[in-house]
Amino acid sequence: MTAKPAALGASDKLTFLLSLVPFLMDHDRVSVTAVADHFGVSPERVRDAVNLIAMSGVPGETRQYLHGDLFDIQWDEFEANDNIVLTHLVAIDDSPRFSAREAAALIAGLQYLSALPENGDRDAIATLMAKLTRSSTGAPSQLAVSRTDADVTISVIQAAVRAGTQVEFDYLNSRGTAEHRCVDPLRIESVDNAWYLRGWCHLREAMRTFRLDRMSDLRSTDVPADSHDDGAPLPDTLFEGSADDLTVTIELPEAALGLLADYGPVPVAPGAAGQHSRAQLRVSHFHGLKRLVAGLAGVVTVVDPGPARQTVADWAAAGAARYDNDPAGGARIDDDRADGTSA
């Protein structure tokens, strides 16, 4: 037996009417039954509300209601087929609306959010983008934000975490060395636009951090993951230093030290006014300096040790040589990124 919809109070009736018009605007043609099911009211209540809406509007300059001052519907469709089709809106079309350019910017942002792996409710985002498209003053420019394979990788790892099994993958570290890894996945985290897997690496027999975009041939296994509740706690911070880290001295303007906050620089020789100062960094290997120097070209200079300077110099020279060998000047320098992973 179908339960009878609860009676609506005065405030509920007003809320229903205020919600009904936007709902009808989002649906070109909708049946009374569908509206009743959506709002949890009786079909009779919907019909009464539609009749009331058709007698509502905004008076004109003469303070009288003329035909163009009232909402209107397709009465034949309503009375014969019990369908609601709005044909004339009042005042709502005069409300502030996004321009085509503003709507395009918002849609681009929503597309970017939809592409992020942590945003699972993509249907809600798609609905909002459709509303922005319909409600703008003009047709927004067609935009597309490309997606990566990170969401697929995350879904595989999340499934392994739920099942309590290990994952296997080939991993390419920033030194360019590829190794096969078997990991007990514990956590997935993001820093800026990069995603990382944290877990127990059976090859290293220690907790390690891996960048997802350096993985290949990722697969979940049937091997149960070990419990790490006691013996190997997961550090609170994403990147942890170790006794094997290397100390590098760099030179840069003192005002630029804030740009290296992720590296934890330690000032050792403050410069005079207008001059460069020196600081020390701890890195897992000298290859990690490539990304730092490339991102702050002309700002950071590697001072010592000599092997660190030589590593950066060789990498820069190899990149410049590729341009010298390309008559079209279209060669692309490979980004051997130092991502801070402890692989």
UniProtKB/TrEMBL annotation:
InterPro entries: CBASS_pafABC_assoc_protein, PafC-like, PafC_HTH, WYL_dom
Organism name: Cryobacterium lactosi
PROSITE patterns: WYL (PS52050)
Protein name from the UniProt record: WYL domain-containing protein
Pfam families documented for this protein: HTH_PafC, WYL
Source superkingdom: Bacteria
Start and end residues of each PafC HTH domain: 12-134
Comp. bias intervals (Basic and acidic residues): 332-343
Region (Disordered) location: 323-343
Every WYL domain range: 154-219
